[in-house]
Write a structure and sequence with these properties.
2 copies of one chain form a homodimer. Chain A is of the alpha+beta class. Chain A contains 7 helices and 4 strands. Chain A folds into 2 domains: about 80 residues, Glutaredoxin (3-Layer(aba) Sandwich), CATH 3.40.30.10; about 120 residues, Glutathione S-transferase Yfyf (Class Pi), Chain A, domain 2, CATH 1.20.1050. The longest helix of chain A has 27 residues. Chain A starts with a strand and ends in a 7-residue tail after the last helix. In chain A, about 50% of the residues are buried.
Amino acid sequence: MRLYDMKAAPNPRRVRFFLAEKGLEIPREEVDIPSGANLAPQFLAINPRGVLPTLVLDDGTVIDESVAICRYVEGIRPEPNLMGCDPLEQAIIEMWQRRMEFDGMMGIAMAFRNAAPAFARRASPGTLPPAAQVPELVERGLAQARHWLERLEARLAESPYVAGPRFTIADITAFVSIDFAKWVGLRLGEDSRATRAWYEGVKARPGASA
Amino acid sequence: MRLYDMKAAPNPRRVRFFLAEKGLEIPREEVDIPSGANLAPQFLAINPRGVLPTLVLDDGTVIDESVAICRYVEGIRPEPNLMGCDPLEQAIIEMWQRRMEFDGMMGIAMAFRNAAPAFARRASPGTLPPAAQVPELVERGLAQARHWLERLEARLAESPYVAGPRFTIADITAFVSIDFAKWVGLRLGEDSRATRAWYEGVKARPGASA
């Protein structure tokens, strides 16, 4: 297996965190998104969609989409379980994972990609059609991310982890998104007590620095 | 169980299609998004996030997010399998499902919600902060959806179904998205031969009219 990766980017970080929790090491190759290396012929020959992370299996099978890669890893290395042990738990974890992804990470990405100079003419990821940045989306994305952080605080005030009593993939998405939010100037406030306590706990895990 | 539903909306339709393929009937309650019924106190008391579909189990557990609901249904009614039988197949299906969702459905939703009069002040779904429509996003969304249709045609020219040799949740997302695309004036062209043939096959399934 080989993981096409970018050390600083949030989506690849989710997968590295997940792999570290599983105790798995996979050879990695760095592909730099801001300079456009993910859209260069060399990488498009591997994944024509031009997105990271991309996992290539030994038989050449290509898997992109962070959560799909995690799903594969969960299947081949079931312990510790990060995606649910029975239908109900699997659904609850998937629900929370998607809430973190759609309300949180995507809001932050909206603010980031519509402002960062490197993405001036490619506000959409990968090989989606070139899109000019739209300044209104910076504020829309920030408002969405702030709202997500409020909801997250309410959730973590009542639950030890995002999806329930134990650490799961939903915590990984939330944690990585909180660090990603710093790129657009958003930080946890003093009143985010439950989130800050949870954040420190997750940060102490080996996967947090993977 | 009870499914909070909206007959015309694409996300609830994905879940109804999935349920029909499983041969499951669940009592449904209609909630009208354009008139704002999903944001009324009555529905927010059920799901504070204000999104559809929402599944409520007999013990009161709430599951939103279409794919999370499908994951639960897949677990309690495994046959016919729609989300994969082993780790690799599960990952491949999830990858394709997400490609259809992110590149296709979300592009169409971007074009739709930034243009439809009913969403003039709520271009973001559910209880996300009120967002004014951004006209540039109509063209961005349409360009993304067109690009997705080109990619889908290439895929279906080489594969009987979106994720491989058999019908899966990825086909449901793609099929529902193609019908959703009509809302923004996009239709399959004459040259989309493989997609049209696949579409007719999927349309003949009982779930297509669910």
